[in-house]
Amino acid sequence: MALMKVKFDLKKRVKLAQSVWFLFWFAVMAGVLVFSMGLFFKIELRKRSELMDNNESHFLPNLLILMGLVACCINAFGGKVCYDSLDPSKFVKWKPMLKTFLVVCVVFNALLVVTALLCFIMRIPLQFTLAEGLRNGMRYYKDTDTPGRCYMKRTLDLMQMEFRCCGNDNFRDWFEIQWVSNRYLDFRAKEVRDRIGSNVDGQYLMDGVPFSCCNPSSPRPCIQQQMTNNSAHYSYDHYTEDLNVWKSGCRDALLYYYGGMMTTIGALVLLVTLLEVAVTVGLQYVHSSLSTLANPEDPESESEGWLLEKTVKETFTDIMAKMKAMGKGGKVEEGGEEGGVATVS
After folding, report:
1. What pLDDT, on the 0 to 100 scale, is given for residue 341?
2. Cβ–Cβ contacts within 10 Å for residue 231, how many?
3. 51 torsion bin: left (phi>0), alpha (psi -120 to 50), beta (else)
4. Which of 16, 132, 217, 285 could cross-link to 53 by cystine, CB 3.0-4.6 Å?
C-alpha cells in the first residue's frame, strides 16, 4: 500500500511540476547561500589563522563550500527534470535515472543535516584550538625579527583592539610571559637584571600588558605598566580600582564571535535542508504521478502519486533484503574466484 497517495489530473500535474520547478531554482539560490557562508567563514578564519592551533578548523567551511556547490548542481538538474516533465516526450529520457537521482537527493539531505549539526558541535574543538593558538601567539609576540613570526605582534594587537579583549583568559596572562623583545631592554639597568635573574627561564617578566589592552573609554590615562604596584600611580589601588584595560580574555571573545557565526550558519543550513526535503518530496510526486498514468498515450488521463510506493516498514524491509542479497552476491563471487584458483593448481 502506497504511503500518502494523491490523485492527479493533467491540471494538477502541471501545477505540481511548475511549483517544484520554481522551488528547485529557489533551492539553487539556497545552495549559493551555503557556498557564500562557507567562503565567508573561511575568510574570517584565515584572518586569524596564526592564532589557530591547527588547520582542522577549516574543515567546516570547506564542507560548507562543497555542499553549496553540490546543492547548486543537484537542484539545477532537478529543475531541468521538472521543466521537461511538462512535455511527456522530453520526460522519457529522464525517467530511467530518476529513482537513482531521488536516492542521491535523500543522501544529500542527510549530509546537509550532518553539516548543520557540525556547525553546532564544532564549537567545542574550536575552544581548545583557540586556547592553544592564543597561548603560542602570545609567546611569539616579541619575535618581530623572526621570520614567520614577525607579524604576530600586529595580529594580536589588532585582535585585542577589535574584540576588546586582553590575554588568553584575562589580562594577567601577559604577566606570565616575556612579551618585550630583548633588543628593547637595557641590560645595564639593575631592575632588568634583577627581573631576569629572578626567573628560572631567564625571562623578563613584569606586571604589564601591551598598549592594545587599553580601554579608550577609561576616564584616566591607561595604566599598562606596574599594574599591581599601588605606589607607582597616584590614587590607585589595583585591588579595588576599575582597571582601564579590557577585562575579558580573547579566547572567550573569539569563541563568542565564531560560535555565534557557526550557530547562525547551522540554523540557515537546517532551513536549506527543509527546502531540499520539500523539493525531493515534490519530485517524487512528479515522478510517481507520471509513471502511473492510466493511459500513457493520453496526457490528460488521471494518475496517482505517492511519497513511498509501500509503507515505511515494507520499504525498510526491502532495502535490508537488497543489502543482504548484495552481501551474499559478493561472498559467492569471492568463493567462485577461490574455487577457480584451486582448479587451476
Report:
1. 47
2. 7
3. alpha
4. 132
Q: Are 75 and 25 in contact (CB under 8 A)?
A: yes
Cell numbers of 67, please? 555542499
What is the model's pLDDT at position 335?
Answer: 56
Residue linked to cell 594587537: 157
- Residues ≥6 apart with Cβ < 8 Å to 1: 310, 311
Instruction: Measure the CA–CA gap between 212 and 105, rounded to whole angstroms.
Output: 51
Q: How far is CA 23 from CA 17, 36, 47, 78, 303, in A?
A: 10, 20, 36, 10, 23
> Sign of the C-alpha dihedral, residues 35, 36, 39, 44?
negative
| Dihedral (Cα; 94, 96, 98, 99), 10-degree rounding | 180
Tell me the pLDDT tens digit for each residue of 238-255: 776 667 889 899 999 999
User: For 93-133, what is each residue's pLDDT tens digit?
Assistant: 888 888 888 889 999 999 999 999 999 998 888 888 888 88
Q: Where are the beta strands (DSSP E) in the chain?
A: 6-8, 303-305
User: And the C-alpha cell for 292?
Assistant: 502511473
Full DSSP string of 117-150: HHHHHTHHHHHHHHHHHHHHHHHTTT-TTSTTTT
Beta-bridge mates of residue 8: 303
Closest listed residue to residue 206, CA positions, set 130, 133, 131, 142: 142
pTM exceeding the 0.85 threshold for the entire prediction: no
Collapsing DSSP to helix, strand or coil, 44 comes out as: helix
Q: For residues 214 and 200, what is the distance between their CA atoms, to the nearest angstrom?
A: 29
**What's the rounded Cα separation, in Å, for the pair 140 and 136?**
6
